[in-house]
Amino acid sequence: HPPTQLGRRGSRFCEACLHRCLSTQQPQCAVCRSPLAARDARRNEAVERTMAEMLAPCSACSEKVRVSDFRAHTSTCAQAQKAQIAFQTPTTTAARCDCSLGPNRFTFMCPYCGTRNLDQDDLLRHCMERHHSDRTRVVCPVCASMPWGDPNYCSSNFIQHLTHRHRFSYDTYVDYQADDDSTLQEVLQRSLQEK
User: Fold this and answer.
1) What residues form the membrane-spanning segments (predicted)?
2) Which residues contact 159 (CB under 8 A, 6 or more apart)?
3) Residue 36, CA distances (Å) to 13, 29, 126, 147, 195 in order
4) Alpha-carbon distances of 62 from 72, 74, 82, 121, 168, rounded to whole Å
5) What CATH code would you report for 99-166?
6) Could you tell me which of 105, 109, 130, 127 has the C-alpha nearest to residue 118?
């Protein structure tokens, strides 16, 4: 997917990610949350040239490959195919959650009325039914429970925040024990291996 840029100094996305951002009812930049318009998007030739020139080692076979050719390489690299199959094979789920350790990231309290034991879906449903017109600035209990969350940050539109920021359960995708640097490295490595 070719790299794309919004405006002269705007955020940069691959074309597929930008398309996902633009396909919502009220398109917003995934980075800064400002409104998006398809007419502002243009191909980022500077990033495209850099990707065509930069070499990076394949994590599976160590061959140096142009970043722009990584997907094509991993689709033909036998070691990368084996690694992908191993990565997709589920591991044991017995140790999924030891609820006695660490903060509770599975149930939350309504920041408006204090109703307890709401999972993310129940929290959204509860707030839509009981607090849909309440514009009080509140702290998002989901964000506050995360290692990177700010327990003092108040959202100006909590229900919109819940709808846009918490569409999935973080425990499905996030390793809470990993630090930011190792998570970033893993995400970058996986993105290079995606087809």
Assistant:
1) none
2) 124, 127, 128, 131, 132
3) 12, 6, 30, 30, 27
4) 15, 11, 14, 43, 34
5) 3.30.160
6) 109
> Which H or E run includes 125?
helix 120-130
| Reported pTM | 0.40
> What does the pLDDT look like over 68-94, one tens digit per residue?
888 888 888 888 777 766 555 555 444
Six token digits for residue 8: 């002269």
Pair 142, 153: CB distance under 8 Å: no
Structure tokens at 160: 């919109």
Q: Where are the beta strands (DSSP E) in the chain?
A: 3-6, 12-14, 41-43, 55-57, 64-66, 138-139, 154-155
C-alpha torsion sign, points 164, 166, 172, 176: positive
| Residues 6 or more apart in contact with residue 30 via CB below 8 angstroms | 11, 13, 17, 21
Q: What is the pLDDT of residues 106-140, one digit of tens each?
A: 789 999 999 998 888 889 889 989 998 888 999 99
